[in-house]
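Section 3.1: Structural characterization of target chains.
Under the original work plan, the team committed to producing a structural model for every single-chain target entering the pipeline before any wet-lab resources were allocated. The record below documents one such target. The sequence was received from the expression subgroup and is listed exactly as submitted; it comprises 264 residues.
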Amino acid sequence: MALSAKFEPTPFAEGRFRTAYMGTWTSPRSKSGQRCVVKELKESYTWKASDWSTAKLVQDEAQSLADGFNTFSGTNHPIKFAEVNVMQVVKDNIPLSTPTLGEYVVAEDYIPGEFKKWCSNYGYISAEAQASAISMPAFMHWSWYHTGGQMMIADLQGVKTSNGYLLTDPVILSDEQEYGCTDMGVEGMAMFFMKHQCNSFCESLPAPTFDDFTGVIPARTILIYTLAFQSIQSSTAYRTELKFTRSIKNAVLRTFRNVATRRK
């Protein structure tokens, strides 16, 4: 099925790493006329389709884990991620505009409704996610547990519909930080658990506590990181990082894996 779309030259939204343009599908016939969103990377031009390979991989992995969580939780509001399609700009009506001719972008169906960000990749959990949209932080917790503490799906944002949650632009946090510039690794995981309070969806899962780090990380170091976290936890997009030292990172990784593989 060949996909094609046209899009506006002026962006309607942007994040730290991507710029979004409103568009319309022009093919196939079943989608023609429907709205879509076209996104380009902000950090550099993308002249190869493979430049989006990490984004595609993250999206596919996020959906696979979401399917597992939906089954585990029995939720009546399942989580689904918008499908990403890599496309090339083949016509440029406005010279010197971006995305530019020949550049590769991604396009996905427009998600109608009130767009919200429930969780970030560095410790932010919205008040709504703590009160009513509790499957969002629970999904992050479960993805960490299910992968043995090696991975966590984060940056949960999108629209809640009557049928569930339709999300876009997920992030994978991994122990080796192998999923691109948004992968904040074990620091992002630690920031999440410093804020997260288990709910009915995840209370049966093991979770790290400060007691797990007693004798593993110096108490003074824990205090320093805790105070730093308190200054950044309200931000939906991180602007500062704690920058764990290698020894601290390794200690946290070992502890996380021990906790994630134990029975509660």
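The longest strand covers residues 18-27.
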